[in-house]
What we know:
With about 250 residues, chain A is an all-alpha fold. Chain A has helices spanning about 5-25, 35-65, 70-75, 85-90, 95-115, 120-150, 155-165, 180-185, 195-210, 230-240, 240-245.
Amino acid sequence: MEKNAALFQFLCRMGDNTLVLGHRVSEWCGHAPVIEEDIALANTALDLLGQTQLWLELAGTVEGKGRSADDLAFLRDVWDFRNLLLVERPNGDFGHTLLRQFLFDAWQNIILARLTESRDQRIAEIAEKAAKEAAYHVERSSGTVIGLGDGTDESHRRMQAALDRLWPYVGEMFCGDAADQTLAAAGIAPRPEDLRSAWDAHVNAVLDAATLARPDSDFAHKGGRDGTHTEHLGYILADMQFLQRAYPGAAW
Amino acid sequence: MYAQMVKTAGHGIKPRDRMTPQERAFQDRIDAGEKIEPKDWMPDEYRATLIRQIGQHAHSEIVGQLPEGNWITRAPTLERKAILLAKVQDEAGHGLYLYSACETLGVSRDELIAMLHAGKMKYSSIFNYPTLNWADIGAVGWLVDGAAIMNQVQLQKTSYGPYARAMVRICKEESFHQRQGFSIMMKMAAGTPAQKRMAQDALNRLWFPSLMMFGPPDKDSAHTAQSMAWKIKINTNDELRQRFVDQTVPQIDYLGLERPDPDLKWNPDKADGKGGFDYSDPDWAEFFAVLKGNGPCNTDRMKARVDAWEQGAWVRDGLSAHAAKRAARSAQQTAAQ
Ligand SMILES: [Fe+2]
Ligand SMILES: [Fe+2]
């Protein structure tokens, strides 16, 4: 893949992950189990939203067609979104939301640390800022997964069910393609495959402390990174893009 | 006002000569502008009234997340979404400070929440109205936070220390909320015909419910005198309502929107010749109906809060079970050493 196209694709992947996950997390607003969690979830969603702005703005610059972060977020259809399937999964119960967050945070924390060394200075700068937030997120979600995994029988059962349900969406994080190869060769971004062992080490340690059993299947649902999504993304966009679509050209 | 129609405990103001020496000393401290702190002696009725008022205020912050939360996933730009999310998060934080202030009076947050869910405590009537278009998010910040500020600024001087300090913290954030709301209104009022229509619609629907936030007219509010003597209320309902109207009408004009009440007219003779706007009374029958549970969103709001609480029980239980396990483990370790 040609380098600029690969770079645009990569930036959309990063920005769409945070956009879609931030959207999902923000759905909790006012409905969390305790006020402290409501505040913490809003914090996470805000961080993700801030990162989205940075990634998509840079994507627009790289693409060179004059599209802003808002244009990319609000005016693309499902097939142009490049997020992981994991992040568009519905919230389910609080445990399910938290486990999804944990699996993602563990990955994001690792990739952002690697991206701080990107040869593309603009990417390194965004990663620098986002890495601090991601480090906090992973610490928090890991701690809560441990607390609920090793809590009551019910909380343990719910966390295990969430883990089993979400596990098939893990593999996609580590499946590279030609665009990834191009960027890895240019020293811009790591190969997704190379992040797996650090992710496994962190996740295994947390699952262990949480007394949760790591599922032994390595089956992976894929497609999100190429624009083939689950049925859920269409509804997310219908919600998110409603005003921009219904009132084109208006300033808000 | 986030605490409206707070029933004052007791039977009206006690004349000074019928007060016990302790009560007299307490009233003297209040009259001297001293703050009452949690460990100080206070009349039972003072404590009970404060619990009702602060509790209702806290509940309002929490339930108040819902109407605005309704638009977070549909906010029209990334920036507007972030501002709204941060605002609603602030409200949750206000709820926390206020529950903490209330806990200093000897009632736990869980008990207060249980009373809310059992229908034994109330929250502000305003949050039982729906947010139907994006301009409602502007109007809520502008009018609802605006009305809340009117009330909360004076409560910074309230006699109960923890409440007064919570108000100081909260007021700083509220003025930011009001500004972001007004900024949405400016965009909408100066926008396309459809946006203008949304702005006018939001103003028309939320105007009278905002006036209701200050509670019933002074002539019908039996509880004001004692609460004012205790300085847990500094101004009367009608004083605050008038101040709000006088502040808001020029802003409506500035936005270029139509006044939502044809009787909103400048009256130079009001307030001993200082002037003020005349306005129509809100429909007080509607107000009492909403308080009784018959507002457009009462059942939805309460269901959302009760569901969140009940469906979150396993999370709260799980986390405390884990904390207990850890404490037991570390106690064991210390014993083994
Ligand atoms: Fe507030
Ligand atoms: Fe506010």
